[in-house]
Amino acid sequence: MRSTKAINAVERLKTRSGNPQYAAISLSGGLFYLVDRALAGEQKLSSPLRLDDFVAFVNALKPEKPRRVSKLDLAMDEQIKCSGKPRDPSTG
After folding, report:
1. Can you give the residue ranges of every domain in the chain?
2. Which residues of 13-52 are buried (b: 16+ CB within 10 A; e: fewer)?
3. For residue range 1-14, what is the model confidence (pLDDT) as tens digits?
4. 72-80 LR contacts (CB < 8 Å, sep 24+)
5. Which of the two residues, 31 and 92, has the higher pLDDT score?
6. Beta-bridge partners for 24
7. pTM of the full structure
């Protein structure tokens, strides 16, 4: 189902924001819009969007936290950078 991608994006938004009141509304023609079902009623947060545009909009509302980088990750990145350089014959 194409709507699974939209629903998963809203579920990630709920987790990142801590607001379980977000919902994706599906329209005919493959369009979706985002609503916040707060206590004061349903508030429409976007206009009807195509699936990929909707997912991009939802992901931009509350971006994912950057992944934590360990010392080992940094050392591996440095090693990868150095592996592409030609070796200096004078160093052995």
Report:
1. 3-86
2. beeeeeeeebebebeeeeebbbbeeeeeeeeeebebbebe
3. 567 899 999 999 99
4. none
5. 31
6. 34
7. 0.65
DSSP string of the chain, one letter each residue: -THHHHHHHHHHHHHHH--TTEEEEEETTTEEEEEEEETTEEEE-S--EEHHHHHHHHHHHSPPPPPP--HHHHHHHHHHHHHTSPP-GGG-
Residues 6+ apart with CB under 8 A from 4: none
Chain position carrying tokens 């350089």: 85
In whole angstroms, give the CA distance from residue 51 to residue 62: 18
Contact (CB, 8 A) for 52 and 31:
no
Pairwise CA distance, residues 86 & 71, whole Å: 25
Count, residues in the chain: 92
> What's the one-letter identity of residue 45?
L
